[in-house]
Design a protein that fits this description.
mainly alpha
């Protein structure tokens, strides 16, 4: 189990991997800029649920319900950033 979500923790953010290279995108990349824009706009409780689902494998209905709209927004942010 990872530690609880802490907004001051540099590791408590989504990690996005480039599917072509298998390497995580760097913080200043267009993908991470867009992802972090969405992430930073999300309410604390939603970010907390995201970390619980992605890091701790939570399947609690409350967590899943909070995370679903965020995942849609993150997916769209990645799509926008990677469209050429």
């Amino acid at each position: 189990m990872s530690h609880p979500y802490d907004p001051r923790c540099p590791h408590c953010i989504p990690a996005i991997v480039n599917m072509d290279t298998g390497v995580p995108y760097e913080m200043g990349s267009p993908v991470m800029v867009q992802v972090l824009r969405v992430w930073n706009a999300a309410p604390f409780k939603v970010r907390q649920a995201f970390i619980a689902v992605t890091s701790d494998d939570s399947r609690a209905p409350e967590d899943m319900q909070l995370v679903e709209p965020l995942m849609e927004k993150l997916t769209e942010a990645i799509r926008v950033a990677t469209d050429n």
